[in-house]
Amino acid sequence: MKFRLHPALIFLLAYCPLATAQKAAAPPTTASRYIVSAHAPSIPSAPPARPVARVNGAVLTDHDLLREMYTIFPYAKQHNGGFPKEMEADIRRGALQMIEFEELVYQEATRRHLTISPQRLAVSEKQFREQFENEQQYQYFLQTEANGSLQVLRTKIKRSLLIEDFLKEQVNQKSAVSEAEAKAFYLQNPDRFKMPESYAVQTITILPPKQPGGKPLTPGALNPEIDKRMRARAEDALKQAKATSTYEQFGVLAEKISEDDYRVMMGDHRAVKVADLPAPILAVIAKLQPGQISGLIQVDGAYTIVRLNAHNPARIETFAGAKETLIAQMQQSKAERLRREMDARLRKDAKIEEL
Question: Are strands 352-354 and 51-55 parallel, antiparallel or unpaired?
Fold first, then answer.
């Protein structure tokens, strides 16, 4: 069913071809690059870092890799710090490619003798420290990632700044798009700006039990007792959903109890075209106001609860309305191309060992 496309496909296309090409357009700050996850263990139980790759002899560790995996998949917080099994391998692969790329960028910046002033380093160190929620969290990072040494920490911050500067010079500045360029694209591609009617929705879905082969049972195949238990679970889910009042509350509940693939995205389908909505769902949400929650809707043997976030009528977007997003998209596309070319160029003569 079109309405239930697997979000992992969309997610991985966005984030994993070369880890996250979007970072080329907006390099992370030093603080965000090294901030400790809220799921980090206490200092005494923190495992030592293990090598996962060598880039021209420089060692990258599983701590670096895990940090990048959290950057790619921030929804891990809703999974108690873990990753969906069906996505974990691709997230890990993308994260490994990204930390390798960043190390290559750092080495190239060093080779070109880029420098960071002591004043800027001091300001960045202060900003970095302010990112931690408390002193214990900061000391955790210092002990586990910098061997308790402020000098090691400063070296890490300097490294991050050099990566940021090099990407800004070689990618960001070269990917700028003018308003005139965007206007020309808008006029040459009118069909791109026809916006079909759509509904922005979140869902919580209770699926029927699976057959021995792993596929859900088809409608009518459930015996009355199984159907009764499934209906009871769906009614309990509806009761909890009706008690929510915000996007975030409904989303957290979807993460916990929904059984469809969109649970990993807080149940969020974004804007779904009318043509892609199942008729039973469309019939219900067409009568809702944004922020309202449906009752139970049966679709293909499943019970679905829908929260309507927005109704977007069909329209042709004006250039004024499209300009900001269009320029950002064109810049991102250009930055992604430049970043891919740089990645290929730096890897060409590099010695990379994945352990």
Answer: antiparallel
SS3 category, 159: helix
Question: How far is Cα 249 from Cα 256, in angstroms, rounded to an integer?
Answer: 11
Render 201-240 in DSSP notation, one character per residue.
EEEEEEPPPBPTTSPBPPTT-S-HHHHHHHHHHHHHHHHH
Angle at which helix 224-242 crosses helix 247-257, to 10 degrees, equals: 150
Cα 62 from Cα 182, distance rounded (Å):
42
The answer, as to whether pTM is greater than 0.85, is no
Distance (Å, rounded) from C-alpha 343 to C-alpha 75? 27
- Kindly state the helix (H) or strand (E) to which residue 248 belongs, with its residue range: helix 247-257
Structure tokens at 98: 């990204």
Instruction: State the amino acid at position 277 in one-letter form.
Output: L
CA gap 189, 191 in Å, rounded: 6
- For the record, the structure tokens of 269 come out as 């389908």
Contact criterion met (CB below 8 Å) for 60 and 53: yes
DSSP class of residue 307? E
Write out the chain's pLDDT in tens, 355 residues. 345 444 333 343 334 444 434 343 333 444 444 434 333 433 344 577 789 999 999 999 888 898 888 888 877 666 566 777 888 889 899 999 999 999 999 999 999 999 999 999 999 999 988 888 888 888 888 887 788 899 999 998 999 999 999 999 999 999 999 999 999 999 999 999 999 999 999 999 999 877 655 565 555 556 778 788 889 999 999 999 999 999 999 999 999 999 998 998 999 999 999 999 999 999 999 999 999 999 999 998 899 999 999 999 999 999 999 999 999 999 999 999 999 999 999 999 999 999 8
Token pair for residue 262?
Answer: 């969109």
Domains (range + CATH), the chain: 2-177+329-354 (1.10.4030), 197-313 (3.10.50.40)
| Structure-token match 């007792």, residue found | 225
